[in-house]
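[Automated response] Your request has been received and processed.

Submitted sequence:
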Amino acid sequence: MKRSSIIISALSLIAVIIISQSIYVVSEIERAVKLRFGEIVEFDVQPGLHFKWPIVNSIKYFDGRILTLDAVPQRYLTSEKKALMVDSFIKWRIKDVAKYFTTTGGDEERAKRLLSQRVDTGLRNEFGIRTVKEVVSGERDQLMNSLATSLDKIAQQELGVEVIDLRVKKIDLPFEVSDSVYNRMRTERERLARELRAQGNEVAEKIRATADKDKTIILADAYREAEETRGSGDAKATATYAEAYTKDPEFYDFTRSLKAYQATFQSKGDILIIDPDSDFFKYLDNSKID
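Generated structure:
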């Protein structure tokens, strides 16, 4: 009884092991191939639950999602023989599982190296027939689209992968020439700044000269107008005095003499040497006062 139970348990365990080794699952984000003693017998296993013979069959899984290859920045020469440092990246995924496995052995890093070599060759050829301006701005999108299309054909034929997109992240000058270029740019900007300052100073001088001229003209006009007003006032005052004098000349002479006496004899120490018969003293001479 015990012996039969042991045998049944052993057979059950063996059956469980065989079943577990015979069933495999391919997820939605995976691609897989089935091998029989290392030979491909099923090229592209679809997602789901599948059966295989233990020991005889083996399964190789690959990432079926869109992957990113961030290429190492490389130095390329343009048609003008000017060097540029180009940093790019590629979006790719497995298209032909059998060819991918045959070419790379299922090694993703090897696939990236092979794809990077082809990208490097394509970029070198495309940059070599374009100028710096065309590469940086004018034909950059056209260059990327053209290169992505041609690279996709090569990658599918040789590696079994599909190139979805190819983009340049950054284009820089090589380190050994960047300093001299920046210095030249700085010198050019300083020269332009000096020219702008000189033009500004010239305009400022013109504005100051115009303002000074306007100030002189305004002051001259104001002085002329003031003199004219003062002259008109003086003439009017003289006419008023003359009119008043003609009405009572004696009184006018008397008040003017009083003002003269007041202005002359301001202190007791003032001395005035003058002819006593002068008209200056006529109002001080009591004999002449009525």
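Summary generated for your ticket: The chain has seven helices and nine strands. Residues 31 and 62 are 5 Å apart (CA to CA).
If you did not submit this request, please reply to this message.
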